[in-house]
Recover the amino acids of this structure.
């Protein structure tokens, strides 16, 4: 397993005469940062490949000038950050960056947090020696959220780097600037690196990589986050506020289950209206990359809620007569614990279909593997894995963190990837050359797991019957293939002049027929692949691979054979060197799954918390009693990395909270966060007070947020797995319950910068066939939806959004994410 | 001068003279006579005469020495810091404020607030601007920090009002467009120093 690599070998280095320890193989820049030594750098992003665009991180290592961002530390290395020659280079570089940079810091959105400003001051640039005629550059809007002002762009390429290496969309790239050539005289007079950097800068700008003026991407806005200057700004934020006016509230993204660390940035909304408003969301982009929902879905607060006593009393009554509480995963650990307490003390049922399937799956997994939770997380995958497998999740839609990790492994770790999913996605193969996609029929997820066992499992450890079962799919057949062979032919040639005969050897190509035995793997073919081609491809993929990991997605929890699948995953974990990570369906699904004892169905009078019910508690402002939204309350989440992370209230809230109801119903401590230390220790939670939870990243990239769950594990025997049925594969019209990227729940839907519509997403061809609006008929009901073409989808399966709780899409799909449906045009 | 004489607090040894005070009258009649004598001495009319003379000079000979406030006000030093003014560009008449927010940031009594937006011409527009004069301490930092000489201190020093907090909006402080020709360049706090040119390093231009 990966333990070998986790014991990191440290080397001793000297920076400016002071001794430090650094991780072997680390770049000088990162080693310096980890030791709190400052080396200026603009273009480098910690988890992406070095761009070498800015050249400002120039240092002297063992007497040689190197770029700190792509030179690795060695034992005994002596590094000088400042030498006269380097300082001259750096100053020249900063002067070049300032050439023709508009002097509009006064209005620029980045002013105050601008790296160009900072480094210009840091390197004391107080005069300008270089000059070149400017090029006309006009502002553009790349998408519904991206605003690009090329006039301010310094072409550090951080945006293109992060989009390619981290996000995976590769939606932007450098383009021709059409600038004038640099005056020849400068070549002699200016420092070498500064000239080279200027030469490149003068030739390029950034543009959407698809050749149009609109990006075709997931609108995650990570390019905005990494832009060191004011060139890339969210369209909504342009000229809205200065950086220094905003108050930063550390929080956790409330939408995807990644639990990304974010900052809500607030200030009073206007002169007349002094209520706080969230103006934007920022992140520690060196250590965490956000998805579009985390960055742009921030204004979902329950405004103007007041303490409505009548509603409160009604709520108390409703709880008293409730048989069921229905809720979803947009809930903190503390609130989940409150609901669980209600269940224990009042005997209500807790109904949460979103999490229930996941919880069951985890239980099966625990029974089969002896471990409470999975073994790795996306950060660890990015750090060391070089082979990733994704099963059962629509990576682009379900789990942005997994998508980033999958892509990052391809780009940075020279990795390979296997992607098993029924819905073909054109983006996934673009992550890297060694990505193989299997677009199998829904229902054959077990076959995919068997294939993984076949490919990776240690044959010694595998139970005999499993081995036999896998082998039963293999056939070998003899095949005659035609091969071109070079053949040496000897010929006698008569020299025309001398008349002598000479023997000449000639090479002639000849086609021969050859018989070979071909191993055919029925599993590959069953999953829609070509066994022969795959065998070749897989051999290449496996070259020099050491660390394997697998991502498990929601499809597998919502599956008729979920128990068998959980066992197969446990078997994979036990018999291969693959580390597993599972994506909780949404938000705090993991927290709910661990804390709450959920029931299978709702009966009788139901109180809905952000869900349908006879009495509705709602943070959306449309219920019978107002509740605080996620950006209005403090508490903790349990995220995909098995970490309990604290989130803080960014906006004030004037109404009642769940804890107030608890006080009346069963008695409760003063504050919601007083529940934090009561989280169940049996499930790995610690008895730590909310205010003692750290929430930061260290300079070396260590995530110091909250705490990691203790994962209990016991030794268990290898699980006995069942065979799968090929007939379980779905045929015909299939609907897949899947949200568009950036949409997760009613809260993302409420946010004004999220534009993805509630509807049926289909490949362009299918969308054309379906028309504008369709009725999708399930066994237990139907829904009428708009059809939206998704250019990155292929095939006939349609994706049905589920983010509006009121639409009841969960109920239509029931225990599965795939359903046979009838589609009628409306 | 030394401080010795002040430090000597021994009263007895210093040179005090006793005033030559006459004996106070004893009888009521004598008291009345003393009061009458002192009241109706001719000196009263000497003083009155001076007053009447100066009044005459002021009213009829044009030698008025007082200012007819509030009808008339004295010119005030450019360095005086009274109610703010927002200046316009003389050429275009557009207001100078670019909405950089520096005055808002530097304000030590937190009395400046502004709202900005992205306007139709792709420029930053100041949509609202206000100073809370109930809190302003007229320190002049805003005028000093302003990179555009847009916000300056004007000479309007009458700040009494019925309530402590009175607000001023952008339009109130902005030079009226019809009085643009009367707009004075400000040379008080925060204005360009007379030797500014000497301190500037020129940026080379390739045009």
């Amino acid at each position: 397993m990966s333990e070998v690599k986790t014991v990191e070998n440290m080397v001793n280095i000297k920076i400016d005469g002071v001794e430090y320890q650094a991780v072997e193989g680390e770049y000088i820049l990162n080693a310096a940062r980890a030791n709190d030594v400052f080396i200026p750098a603009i273009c480098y992003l910690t988890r992406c490949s070095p761009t070498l665009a800015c050249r400002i991180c120039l240092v002297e290592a063992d007497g040689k000038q190197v770029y700190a961002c792509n030179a690795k530390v060695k034992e005994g290395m002596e590094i000088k950050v400042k030498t006269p020659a380097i300082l001259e280079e750096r100053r020249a570089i900063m002067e070049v960056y300032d050439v023709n940079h508009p002097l509009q810091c006064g209005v620029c959105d980045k002013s105050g947090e601008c790296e160009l400003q900072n480094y210009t001051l840091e390197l004391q640039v107080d005069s300008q020696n270089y000059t070149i005629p400017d090029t006309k550059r006009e502002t553009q809007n790349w998408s519904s959220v991206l605003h690009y002002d090329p006039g301010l762009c310094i072409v550090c390429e951080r945006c293109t780097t992060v989009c390619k290496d981290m996000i995976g969309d590769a939606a932007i790239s450098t383009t021709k600037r059409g600038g004038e050539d640099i005056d020849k005289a400068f070549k002699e007079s200016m420092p070498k690196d500064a000239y080279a950097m200027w030469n490149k800068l003068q030739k390029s700008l950034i543009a959407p990589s698809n050749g149009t003026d609109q990006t075709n991407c997931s609108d995650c806005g990570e390019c905005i986050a990494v832009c060191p200057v004011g060139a890339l700004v969210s369209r909504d934020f342009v000229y809205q506020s200065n950086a220094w006016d905003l108050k930063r509230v550390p929080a956790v993204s409330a939408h995807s289950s990644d639990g990304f660390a974010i900052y809500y940035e607030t200030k009073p909304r206007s002169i007349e209206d002094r209520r706080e408003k969230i103006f934007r969301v920022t992140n520690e982009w060196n250590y965490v990359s956000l998805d579009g929902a985390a960055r742009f879905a921030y204004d979902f607060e329950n405004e103007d809620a007041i303490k409505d006593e009548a509603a409160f009393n009604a709520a108390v009554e409703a709880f008293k007569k409730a048989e069921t509480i229905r809720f979803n995963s947009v809930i903190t650990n503390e609130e989940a614990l409150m609901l669980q307490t209600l269940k224990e003390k009042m005997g209500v049922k807790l109904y949460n279909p979103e999490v229930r399937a996941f919880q069951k799956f985890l239980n099966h997994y625990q029974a089969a593997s002896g471990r409470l939770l999975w073994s790795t997380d996306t950060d660890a995958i990015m750090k060391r894995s070089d082979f990733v497998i994704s099963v059962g999740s629509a990576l682009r839609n379900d789990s942005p963190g997994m998508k980033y990790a999958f892509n990052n492994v391809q780009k940075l770790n020279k990795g390979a990837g296997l992607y098993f999913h029924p819905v073909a996605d054109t983006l996934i193969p673009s992550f890297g050359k060694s990505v193989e996609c299997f677009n199998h029929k829904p229902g054959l997820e077990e076959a995919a797991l068997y294939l993984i066992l076949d490919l990776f499992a240690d044959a010694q450890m595998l139970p005999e019957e499993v081995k036999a079962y896998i082998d039963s799919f293999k056939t070998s057949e003899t095949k005659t293939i035609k091969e071109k062979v070079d053949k040496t032919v000897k010929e006698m040639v008569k020299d025309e002049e001398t008349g002598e005969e000479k023997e000449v050897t000639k090479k002639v190509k000849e086609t021969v027929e050859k018989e070979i035995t071909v191993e055919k793997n029925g599993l590959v073919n069953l999953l829609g692949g070509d066994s022969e081609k795959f065998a070749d491809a897989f051999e290449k993929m496996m070259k020099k691979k050491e660390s394997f990991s697998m991502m498990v997605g929601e499809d597998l929890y919502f599956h008729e054979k979920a128990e068998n699948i959980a066992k197969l995953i446990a078997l994979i974990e036990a018999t291969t060197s693959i580390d597993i990570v599972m994506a909780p369906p949404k938000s705090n699904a993991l927290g709910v799954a661990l804390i709450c004892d959920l029931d299978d169905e709702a009966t009788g009078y139901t109180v809905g918390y952000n869900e349908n019910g006879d009495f509705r508690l709602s943070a959306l402002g449309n219920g019978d009693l107002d509740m605080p939204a996620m950006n209005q309350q403090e508490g903790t989440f349990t995220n995909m990395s098995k970490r309990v992370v604290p989130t803080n209230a960014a906006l004030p809230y004037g109404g009642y909270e769940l804890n107030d109801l608890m006080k009346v119903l069963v008695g409760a401590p003063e504050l919601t966060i007083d529940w934090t230390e009561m989280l169940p220790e049996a499930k790995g939670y610690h008895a730590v007070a909310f205010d003692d939870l750290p929430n930061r990243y260290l300079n070396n990239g260590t995530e110091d947020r909250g705490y990691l769950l203790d994962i209990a594990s016991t030794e268990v025997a290898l699980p006995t797995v069942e065979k799968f049925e090929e007939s379980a594969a779905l045929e015909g019209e299939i609907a897949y319950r899947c949200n568009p990227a950036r949409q997760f729940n009613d809260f993302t839907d409420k946010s004004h910068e999220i534009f993805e519509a509630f509807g049926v997403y289909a490949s362009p061809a299918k969308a054309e066939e379906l028309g504008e609006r369709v009725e999708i008929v399930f066994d237990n009901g139907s829904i009428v939806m708009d059809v939206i073409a998704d250019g990155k989808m292929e095939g006939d399966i349609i994706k049905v959004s589920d983010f509006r709780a009121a639409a009841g899409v969960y109920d239509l799909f029931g225990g599965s994410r795939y359903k046979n449906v009838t589609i009628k045009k409306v | 001068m030394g401080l010795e004489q002040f430090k000597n607090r021994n009263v007895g040894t210093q040179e005090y003279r006793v005033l030559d005070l006459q004996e106070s009258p004893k009888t009521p009649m004598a008291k009345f006579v003393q009061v009458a004598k002192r009241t109706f001495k001719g000196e009263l009319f000497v003083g009155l005469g001076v007053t009447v003379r100066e009044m005459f000079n002021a009213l009829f000979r044009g030698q008025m020495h007082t200012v007819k406030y509030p009808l008339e006000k004295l010119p005030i030093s450019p360095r005086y810091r009274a109610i703010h003014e927002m200046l316009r560009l003389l050429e275009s008449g557009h207001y100078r404020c670019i909405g950089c927010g520096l005055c808002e940031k530097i304000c030590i009594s937190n009395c400046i607030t502004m709202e900005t937006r992205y306007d139709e011409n792709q420029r930053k527009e100041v949509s609202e601007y206000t100073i809370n004069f109930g809190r302003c301490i007229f320190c002049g930092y805003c005028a000093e920090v302003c990179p555009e000489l847009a916000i300056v201190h004007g000479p309007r020093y009458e700040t009494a009002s019925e309530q402590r907090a009175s607000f001023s909006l952008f339009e109130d402080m902005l030079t009226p467009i019809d009085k643009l020709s009367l707009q004075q360049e400000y040379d008080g706090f925060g204005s360009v120093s007379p030797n500014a040119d000497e301190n500037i390093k020129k940026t080379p231009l390739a045009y």
